[in-house]
Amino acid sequence: MSAAKKYKPMDTTELNENTENITACLKKVENAAAAAAASTLGRSAFAAQNMNSAASTNGERLPNFSKLGGHHGEIRTASTTSNLLNRMGAIHNSKPGDVKKIVIKNFKAKPTLPDNYSEDTYVKLEEAVIAIQLSKPIKYSLEELYQAVVNMCSHKMDAQLYAKLKELTEQHVKRNIKIKELTGGSLDKLVLLEKINHWWLSFCQQMIMIRSIFLYMDRTYVLQNSSIHSIWDMGLDLFRIHFAQNNVVQKRTVDGLLTLIEKERQGSTVDRGLLKSLVRMLCDLQIYTSSFEEKFLDATNQLYKAESQRKMQELEVPEYLQHVNKRLAEENERLLHYLDSSTKHPLIYNVEKELLAEHLTTILQKGLDSLLEDNRLNDLTLLYGLLSRVKNGTSELCGNFNGYIKKKGRTIVIDPEKDKSMVQDLLDFKDKMDIIVRNCFEHNEKFTNSLREAFEFFINQRANKPAELIAKYVDMKLRSGNKGTTDEELEKTLDKIMVLFRFIHGKDVFEAFYKKDLAKRLLVGKSASVDSEKSMLSKLKQECGGGFTSKLEGMFKDMELSRDINIAFRGHALSNNRDVHNLDLSVSILTMGYWPTYAPTEVTMPPQFINPQQIFNKFYLEKHSGRKLQWQPTLGNCMLRAQFDAGPKELMVSLFQALVLLLFNDKTALSYEEILAATSIEDGELRRTLQSLACGRARVITKTPKGRDIEDGDQFDFNDEFTNKLFRIKINQIQMKETNEEQKATEERVFQDRQYQIDAAIVRIMKMRKTLSHNLLITELFNQLTFPVKPADLKKRIESLIDRDYMERDKDNQNQYNYVA
Amino acid sequence: MADDPDNSVPAEPEKMFTLKRWNCVCFWNWDVECDVCAICRVQVMDSCLRCQADNKRDVMGRQDCVVVWGECNHSFHHCCMSLWVKQNNRCPLCQQEWSIQRMGK
User: Fold this and answer.
1) Does pLDDT of B77 surpass 70?
2) Does the CB of A235 have a partner CB in chain B at under 8 Å?
3) CATH topology for A115-245?
4) Nearest to residue A373, comparing CAs of A433, A413, A420?
């Protein structure tokens, strides 16, 4: 028999097999007689069958059936088989309706047992039981023993029999445990364990054998008395009592088990079969929890407490995590192989607690930052997996993750020297964190939200600049000349940018800079792709609503309308006027208010410009009455055809540059003052223009004296020796230190707009509340305003509104404001 | 085409610079004396308050919300004024009888 089978003593098939063997002979006899009569004769046949077998089996069995006979008191018995068969024949032969009754009578004398039957049987059974217990051969056949038990039970001697059996078992257990105790002291733990295991296994085997013999008792006497244990349970009970009572043996066994397990934990191989068998023994004896589990958990805790403290010091965090993971796997395997499954929860909980929960803060503080920094995805996955098992693990992890992002993000955002790469860094950082959340943290919503929150926090640590740089970044991406990216890639980048944009509080700053750049792109025709522009616009619209983008959309619309008007104008000019024949004029008509504002400048323009301009003016105002046009000479560009000694060239220049160059048609040498008087271009602007023409890469005019800067009194000449390998040359304008100044101006405009918004919000709130204390007003304002503001700014605006009589201070309470209608 | 720079022979070949193409930029706004509509207190360059609220601008372009000038030369959003005259056919600013002088296009 395999070990597994031994431990399933209640297995019914096994029981049946045993029973069948013993009762097989009974059936053979019965069947012979029954075959003839059973089907037709019903009740009488049943009686007859019983009688029949009673007559044909040996004396010992008689008493057994006499009882049955007693139950059927009315049946008159036919004494022999042949007699009965004859009668049956008679019944068969007689006509239907002519029914004769079979009457079965009782035995005349009640059968009795032999006088000394019970004593003999006791002795016989006792001998057998002891033989089994001592693993000696049994003198009697099993069938015989079984029958003896059946008979004893039938004659109401079951109680004594049970008591006897119990006594025998108890003696046996006692005897054995004494031996163990005696020898135990000197034995090695392992040997002791093996002995106990052997003893237990054979005890089980013996009990199964004994139970098979006493099966009938188990099924009648025991079943009828709910207070007594079945034979098997009785055996276990006795074993338990004596095993549990005997502290020495029990303690040594448990200690032995613990030593063995500790050895295994330290890496040596141990006999898992032995462990398993003994643990099963403890389970079966129901002393697993009381005598073993607690000690086992204690030992586990101590071991891992010491180990975790040591390892935390010795190992780097990732290695420590690997170690913990290994340990957990081992413990799980241990559970699988020999521990009782009820231990699973407390054991794993304890291991996790000692190895992880106790060191949670240290692990996170010591290791998380570097794991994130080095992008160690596998270790992070492991970390998440482990920490999600302990209480507060994920929330602690989430908190630290959040802290890391804020810290790291701040360094990206805060340093003005890193401005150039800030947006790209932010995008990369976001990508990295996204991947970590997705792959390592199971896309846990808590982490996604935390990531978002952290980004929003640090990106707004520095006011305005990130918004501006994001706008600039988009400009860079959308500007043509940004080759090597397909539309899809661009689209992806824009989507990512939008994620950053979402975090920004001062969206108006973004809008201002975006608008400025968009205007430049549209007017110079430098936009990489109309589709991408439109897509960016729709993203912004989705994010901030139609109000945010309506002006930007208006800009696109202006460009479209301008195109139509130019086509119409060209047709008009062709049919009506010759003055514009040689000039390809195209005008961008922009709606004031949609576009960024440009400082108006006045310049003196020669008739070449004035005439077509006037024609266009007339043409346009005829179409759109009630409007007026304001020309913007700083914007726009010209193409000039130039005749040099080396041949003609086409020059792409700004309007100012063109104005200057055209002066040389009439006079080949001009002084600075002459040029200034002729063009009336603003001084600084003119110097820059001349610089670009005389000191730039393409020097179409020469300056005397030479030098980088334009001074009063400088002389300029047409450079007819100009050569360039290109036919079409673009002469770049020298940009004013626009970056700083223009930036300031844009910011200034944003702040101006914000002031109005603050005013509006204050008035709105005051109008609703009529009276409000200062603090409440400030709180409400912070709730309403979508951009970051300082309380000092708010105070200024409140002062200004008081001055303008929108509100007043309460006369009695200086901290209270009243709305003035 | 006659104005194609490559085909045309320069009229005065001795000229050193000839203007061939000019891309210029101009802004338009309504030719008004006061750039705020007295009825809705919104700049006449923007749509009137009502149109902004309805977001008409997005759908139809700004043609909807044009400016209207009265004989008195006062100007308002056309939308605002057409509502106003239903109540009171006088200019809200000078109380003259309202009659339209011209309308923005």
Assistant:
1) yes
2) no
3) 5 helical Cullin repeat like (1.20.1310)
4) A433
